[in-house]
Amino acid sequence: FLSRSKDAFMINAMTQESQIDKSLEVLLAENERVRRFGFTQTELDRQKEEIFSQYEKNAKESDKTESRSFCSEYVSNYLSGDAIPGAPKKFKYLKNILPNITLEEVNALAKKWVTDDNMGLVVMAPEKEGVKVPTEADILAIIRQSKTTELQPYVDKFREEPLVGDDLVPGKVVSRKENSAMGFTELTLSNGVVVVLKP
Description:
The chain is mainly α. 44% of the residues lie in helices and 9% in strands. Strands 1-2-3 form a three-stranded antiparallel beta sheet, with no helix packed on it. Helix 1 packs parallel to helix 6 (136-148) and helix 2 (41-60) packs antiparallel against helix 4 (87-97). The longest helix is centred in the N-terminal third of the chain and has 20 residues, at 41-60. The radius of gyration is 23 Å and the shape is extended.
């Protein structure tokens, strides 16, 4: 988006057409909260688990990688010089590096990246009647307000619990519809659950 020779810290949001200004307020407030107070240890631990899990899965299923993933890596290698070690080696490197990343390091990056003098803000909206796009003056006012808003440190209330309980009753397939145009199969189960299968 910016340049192959530059890195950028970017945040973005998809919002309802009537909530563009409100979304900017929330994004900038959360940015400011991270700058002032940083992340919590539990947030970092959870993110590390997610990253580890994804890299582990990629390594285990490297023989099932779709061609477009390889194409993307080759393009990045050619245009930006990115290395292509392959999923198993990436996972090996990750296992050595990830445990050593500390909360202090992550929070120091947040303070370095979120500053008052290096911001670009882009609003993309449809050109249609009734969509109120904030003006430049509106956006500047929202930015100024984000710097003075009273904020409290984030309290991580995440609880590790299963998505569903153990008392699930199996259902039987009562109908099956093939959508060859879109390449998916829709199953309706006897318990009312609709399952969409797409490779």
